[in-house]
Amino acid sequence: METVRAKMSRLGIIDHVSRLSRKHRYREGWVFSGKLGKSMALLARLVEDQRARAHCAQEQKDGDLL
Questions:
Q1: Tally of domains in the chain
Q2: Where are the beta strands (DSSP E) in 3-66?
Q3: For residues 19 and 26, is the Cβ–Cβ distance under 8 A?
Q4: Nearest alpha-carbon partner for 16 in 35, 1, 30, 6
Q5: Same domain, 49 and 28
Q6: Domain containing 41: what range?
Q7: CA 52 to CA 5: how far, in whole Å?
Q8: Residue 2 and residue 26 share a domain
Q9: Quick check: pTM over 0.70?
Q10: Are 12 and 35 a contacting pair, CB within 8 Å?
Q11: Among 35, 41, 28, 38, CA closest to 12
């Protein structure tokens, strides 16, 4: 578990929270990082853009066949 936690921390998926953090109600532990949410939103947009491009390319191929 420590190995996985260390890897996720290096990748920027999770951040360690100190017990001195008022933002997290003085609880110590691990939380998802802010970068993770932004990265997931960007990835979702990229996937949607790729789907739209693939759909346009398919319509062009169909038009060429006709």
A1: 2
A2: 14-17, 29-32
A3: yes
A4: 30
A5: no
A6: 35-66
A7: 36
A8: yes
A9: no
A10: yes
A11: 35
